[in-house]
Design brief:
13% helix; globular; 1 helix; alpha+beta
Length: 76
């Protein structure tokens, strides 16, 4: 079932507006072209919305941007 499903799990800080450097878990997506068993660390300037663009494209939604995204995330 998870081969065609994406599950994003994570937490953020609700006390400040500087949400960065928080661990996230993206599970599933084996049949959607995502690579499993890896740890990826992105530059602090990479917007989280790039992850959302990558997830949307993986499930077949044709988008190039979402919110403040600058593209997709390489290596997923």
């Amino acid at each position: 079932m998870l081969d065609r499903t994406l599950v994003l799990y994570g937490s953020s800080n609700s006390r400040t507006h500087q949400n960065r450097n928080y661990p996230l878990l993206l599970a599933g997506g084996g049949k959607l072209g995502l690579t499993h068993n890896q740890y990826l660390k992105f530059d602090e300037k990479t917007p989280m919305s790039n992850l959302f663009v990558s997830m949307l494209q993986a499930v077949g939604v044709e988008v190039d941007r979402f919110a403040d995204s600058t593209g997709t995330l390489a290596g997923l």
